[in-house]
Amino acid sequence: KLLALPEAPSYTSDSSTPTLIFNPPSSAPSVYHTPLKFLPKEDKRRQLYAAAQQHANTAAHRRQMSPIAAPGTPLSSPSFLPPRPTSALPAPISEPYEKTYHLSEEDVAEIRRLRASDPDTWTRVKLAEKFGCSQFFVGMVSKAPEKAAAVSKEHEDARRKWGPRRKIAREDRERRKVLWGRDA
């Protein structure tokens, strides 16, 4: 109702004479979608529905049986669980990442020494590649305050060159970020 969309062709007429509007339902109702709450206790549809559900479950369990639901276990009894998928999941695209804790205290001291000696040459990326760890870990064990100050100065210089529209847009964005955490 709120959108200004044109009316569907079946609702608009080309002439001023009354016309028949044909708007059928999306599909015919099915007895399988009748809620059990509305069926009498002795209705045959209740038994048919339960039999169809049990058949679907047993067929799915027959196709792919888990050792957890093997005969003799509590999960082997027939239930109204959804059917199991017919195929296994596809192979993973890449190997799962496992964390490795392979750096010794000497390696961490070497990372700190290299980073302190020349932070422009020994960046986080280069140190992470050399020692086989993450850039985040390099940043945790060795801080470079001079490098951080230089980067923030570069950012401040770039911000001074912004026009008024960009400044207003960034300020609005910051205000919206602050409001994200609040209950509105």
UniProtKB/TrEMBL annotation:
<feature type="region of interest" description="Disordered">
    <location>
        <begin position="1"/>
        <end position="27"/>
    </location>
</feature>
<feature type="compositionally biased region" description="Polar residues">
    <location>
        <begin position="10"/>
        <end position="27"/>
    </location>
</feature>
<protein>
    <recommendedName>
        <fullName>60S ribosomal protein L20</fullName>
    </recommendedName>
</protein>
<dbReference type="GO" id="GO:0003735">
    <property type="term" value="F:structural constituent of ribosome"/>
</dbReference>
<dbReference type="InterPro" id="IPR024388">
    <property type="entry name" value="Ribosomal_mL58"/>
</dbReference>
<feature type="region of interest" description="Disordered">
    <location>
        <begin position="43"/>
        <end position="95"/>
    </location>
</feature>
<dbReference type="Pfam" id="PF12824">
    <property type="entry name" value="MRP-L20"/>
</dbReference>
<feature type="compositionally biased region" description="Low complexity">
    <location>
        <begin position="50"/>
        <end position="59"/>
    </location>
</feature>
<dbReference type="GO" id="GO:0005762">
    <property type="term" value="C:mitochondrial large ribosomal subunit"/>
</dbReference>
